[in-house]
């Protein structure tokens, strides 16, 4: 099947209006396509189409009908599974295995799980008696949930379809009309999703897609649009700040999943081999380009050297890893590799650019890297790098471990490695993070709350938490 070219999807029709910008392969740096930049009038048309859909057949769908549509979308992605995998791999350069076992299955799972959750969702009722009220003073209070209206969904490049559908599915399940803007780096699976949604028979305007950049472009126009009733955004914390400024003008509610500088705490009683393997996964999966990746590892002093040696050996042996998303991002990561050395780091693995002797030498690769020896105040230890790199530092006791983990502007995820169950239960709630994994990493249950504290976000997604964000309760009081 011919790959689909990136196109906007507005009011049930595809269009490539707008000046095109080039799309590069992260694997070899070659230009592989072009993406239309949505001008302001295309964003306006998408918001208008969404508003019109809410006033039309889409606004009158029952939750049963919407859940059936979500299931048809899931089936549609499944039917074009290989096409989705190929598109995700082409845009991101991630190993095919990762796209085929995580990204695309999770996109399907997002639609199916929100269909189940929305359909099975109970509402609350309160039988009421008000003493002294004239008449019976009796009533039945109950709650109905109303969609927020037109929802803007803005998503990043690292898990393009997974993170887009993580918001689109609950937004549609709750009855909103969506205008989505995927990252300018990864337009392809979003375009395929629009095709699948089209085939699934959603009324025109219920789902719209616009492509383009963020600041001073389609993203900013969408996020600050007066016709948008809510914004669900995943991306960098600095972008969250910019979006919030625009949202403030219209008091638009936001749900933000932002950056992280996630800590792993490895206690002396941990199964060290498991902790090392777990850290290889948590720091280097998708070359560290997952918001949940560990960039700070703290190891109890008595096992510090043993851990660092074992981790460095494993990391030096890593082979089948993907590139950074862009030349710009590769340069940013490499600038942190240089900064780390200037700040006094010891580079125990990696630290540079790999040489493959094939077309990948034109791509955006950096070496998986392990650092030690930096103070907690170093920028390399405080700022999100979003690459295949972690810094390992020692700690002496539980209190110090918790203090170091919490000494960060971010608070997205943390991992605790210990065989002491009491310690796990003691430490987990003390870590300032939205998600704490014990002896595992990124083991996801889609019903659980997902999100961060501090600069890592506002609100929670996942299960009922997403359905809560994308709807508002209305109290109905019926006098008896
Ligand atoms: P980014 O913030 O640069 O871009 C994300 C999206 O926002 C893109 O679609 C972009 O075009 C758009 N955008 C940029 N500026 C905008 C503006 N002023 N107004 C409106 N839209 C704008 O992030 P990125 O580089 O694509 O992704 C990497 C970042 O995302 C990292 O910081 C990472 O930690 C974070 N992230 C967080 C999570 C999470 O769940 N917490 C998940 C994935 C990525
Ligand atoms: O697994 C998820 O639901 C999720 N939102 C993952 C985010 C990963 C960040 O890059």
From TrEMBL:
The keyword NAD applies. It comes from Sphaerimonospora thailandensis. This is 2-hydroxymuconic semialdehyde dehydrogenase. Pfam families: Aldedh. InterPro entries: Ald_DH/histidinol_DH, Ald_DH_C, Ald_DH_CS_CYS, Ald_DH_CS_GLU, Ald_DH_N, Aldehyde_DH_dom, OHmuconic_semiald_DH. SUPFAM superfamilies: ALDH-like. Keywords: NAD, Oxidoreductase. PROSITE patterns: ALDEHYDE_DEHYDR_CYS, ALDEHYDE_DEHYDR_GLU. The active site is at residue 257. The keyword Cell inner membrane does not apply. The lineage of its organism: Bacteria, Bacillati, Actinomycetota, Actinomycetes, Streptosporangiales. GO terms for molecular function: oxidoreductase activity, acting on the aldehyde or oxo group of donors, NAD or NADP as acceptor. Belongs to the aldehyde dehydrogenase family. Residues 19-473 form the Aldehyde dehydrogenase domain. CDD domains: ALDH_F8_HMSADH. It comes from the Bacteria.
